[in-house]
Amino acid sequence: MHRRLLIIAAVIGFHVLALWALQSGLLRRAVEMVIPVEVMVELIEPPRQEAPPAPPPPEPKPQVRPQPKPQPRPVARKPEPTPLPVAEADPTPSDNAPAVPVAPAEPVPPAPPAPPAPPAPAAPVVEMPSSSAGYLRNPAPVYPSLSRRLGEQGRVTLRVLVQADGTPGDIQVATSSGFKRLDKAAVDAVRRWRFVPGKRAGVPEAMWYLVPINWVLD
Length: 218
Known about the structure:
Elements: H1 2-24, H2 26-34, H3 37-44, E1 126-127, H4 145-150, E2 154-162, E3 168-175, H5 180-190, E4 198-200, E5 203-205, E6 207-215
Antiparallel strand pairs: 1-4, 2-3, 2-6, 4-5
């Protein structure tokens, strides 16, 4: 038991002594004394890398001299044949040469005349209505008594739609006399009239017709 305690104490003391020597630099001095300086330098310095050998210089290429190009040989040209003289023909005809008859040109027939245009259709004949036929016996408008006493006068123009049977349809005052009594009396009188209907191509047809009425005091 005592032996183990001595061993533990010795180990602990050795470690404490080593730490103290490391801190105080005694261990470093002991190492420098034992190991030479050259050995430590060799241990500390890294190994040097050898430089790669330089590549060999390129071999010089042999120079090739250009060969002269062969010049073309001159070719002998054949002499061109000289043209033979040609006798020119006399453009003037001789007196003994027979004349060639020339056929007369055929006359071109004239173009046929264009056919006449068809006649335009005739416009249908239009006959306007009338109120002046004697057999109609239309009564004359009656002068209003009040208008006569007041001295009202004027001209009324009525626009009447005459039906195909001659009876008046719509009646409008196209031009007023200036007095409503006279205008109304004219409309009432024409509403009892009969007319000759208007015709288009002989067929009766409803048409507008203007009827003038003069209101004049005697």
